[in-house]
Design brief:
The protein is an alpha/beta fold. The protein has 15 helices and 15 strands. The protein has two domains: 153 residues, Aspartate Aminotransferase, domain 1 (Alpha-Beta Complex), CATH 3.90.1150.10; 238 residues, 3-Layer(aba) Sandwich (Aspartate Aminotransferase, domain 2), CATH 3.40.640. Helix 11 crosses helix 12. The longest helix has 27 residues. Bound molecules: pyridoxal-5'-phosphate. Pyridoxal-5'-phosphate binds next to helix 5.
Length: 412
């Protein structure tokens, strides 16, 4: 990958703060955005801002845009049709609305499984829906050694009473990737549905909802170089079969029946541009399909991200004061995203992120709503962890500067 060409497309990466380029290692909280996304959003608002269903050019353009956005996301996720792509404000709002609809027929005695690896968007939504119905909720533990899900524990919780399993594709805190295909197979064996949170995974690897056979999968465009738009894929039978809470006169056809109010059309213009941006990282000729180009692009970004992970793990090992939570094995780089959860002996995470922030190195501290994970790791009352989150636009040079600053911080 030609990182210079890539980085030049991101205004945020080209800016200078007191003569210094900021280093963005906050990707899991929200990625930076290429100029093409900014231009697409501003062009929509500048020339075509309208609503759906009017008899004039800008409304026609808006309908076209919405269809284009659904098709772009269908290509990104390998959904069988664009009618299986639902948009909303963000992943959390969509997941609350899906949990309301899916839980309508739950009864006392039914069970739901959530996990300790998940962001609480994919926990509280199901827990609260379950509470309303007197349904039992159980949480799968993580293996503390590498922060992957404990699949033996998961198997022990599954039964014919299980209605739904809510699980994250990858931890937004430690970067550990879960074996979703296997988790889905196991759930389906007992007749349970699976709702996958792919928010953290989506910017790092190609998703294939058909290969996973998941029932629902949610993601959020602001984590994959786009604007703030939430996305849910659902199997057609489910999108048609479950009944969402909706405004009565609104048309009752998929996918629109799952979408409330007016969508952020400028956001959808940005979603198309973000997916096109990822596809543009491929070397395949323009004659290749968008899905083929996305697949090729993700193979390239994954290879680069694995090199970043290799470097970070090597450098972390030099600091006895640092504890890493998650996969540390250099032979298992493919099983993680380049997201690293760290604690520093005797030092609050906030102190580390503040020091780095003073040097325009953006890293997060806290629990990132991964409450179950931080509780199980025993860091919840200690300010959580410091999270270093790399994206494909980050460089080894940036990471080297990060570790220079960490060394300086620890020397104080
Ligand atoms: C793994 C994960 N799931 C869900 C969410 C919530 O997404 P949204 O902000 O779109 O509601 C986040 C946000 O940080 C996340 O990291």
């Amino acid at each position: 990958m030609d990182l210079n060409t890539i980085r030049r497309q991101f205004p945020a990466l080209m800016q200078s703060l007191n003569g210094q380029a900021p280093i963005f290692l906050d990707g899991p909280g929200g990625s930076q955005v290429p100029q093409s996304v900014l231009s697409a959003m501003s062009a929509y608002l500048g020339y075509f801002n309208a609503n759906l269903g009017g008899a004039f050019f800008s409304s026609h353009k808006t309908v076209e845009l919405m269809n284009g956005a659904r098709q772009a996301v269908a290509d990104l996720l390998n959904a069988p049709s664009k009618e299986q792509i639902v948009f909303g404000a963000n992943m959390t709002s969509l997941t609350f609305s899906f949990s309301r609809a899916i839980s309508r027929n739950w009864q006392a005695g039914d069970e739901v499984i959530v996990t300790n690896a998940d962001h609480y968007s994919n926990v509280s939504s199901w827990r609260q829906a379950a509470e309303d119905k007197g349904v039992k909720v159980q949480a799968v533990r993580i293996n503390e050694a590498d922060c992957t899900l404990d699949l033996e524990h998961y198997a022990s919780l599954l039964s014919t009473k299980t209605k739904l399993v809510a699980v994250t594709y990858a931890s937004n805190t430690t970067g550990s990737i879960n074996d979703i295909k296997r988790i889905v197979e196991m759930a389906h064996q007992v007749g349970a549905l699976v709702y996958v949170d792919a928010v953290h995974y989506a910017p790092h690897e190609l998703i294939d909802v058909q290969a996973l056979d998941c029932d629902f999968l949610a993601c959020s465009a602001y984590k994959f170089f786009g604007p703030h738009v939430g996305i849910v894929y659902g199997k057609k039978a489910h999108l048609e079969g479950f009944t969402p809470y909706k405004v009565e006169p609104a048309k009752d056809v998929i996918p629109g029946r799952w979408e409330t109010g007016t969508q952020s059309f400028e956001g959808l213009a940005g979603v198309i541009a973000a997916i096109e941006y990822i596809a543009s990282l491929s070397d395949l000729p323009k004659t290749a399909t968008r899905r083929e180009r996305l697949s090729d692009a993700f193979a390239k970004t994954k290879a680069h991200e694995m090199a970043l992970s290799e470097y970070v793990l090597k450098r972390i090992a030099e600091f006895p004061e640092i504890t890493l939570y998650g996969i540390a094995d250099q032979m298992r780089l493919a099983e993680r995203t380049p997201t690293f959860a760290l604690t520093f002996a005797g030092i609050e995470p906030r102190k580390v992120s503040e020091f780095l922030g003073e040097h325009h190195i953006c890293v997060w501290d806290g629990n990132f709503y991964a409450q179950g994970l931080c509780e199980q790791l025993g860091v919840i009352d200690k300010g959580g962890v410091v999270r270093i989150g790399c994206m494909h636009y980050n460089t080894i040079d940036e990471l080297s500067t990060l570790f220079d600053r960490i060394e300086q911080f620890l020397a104080r």
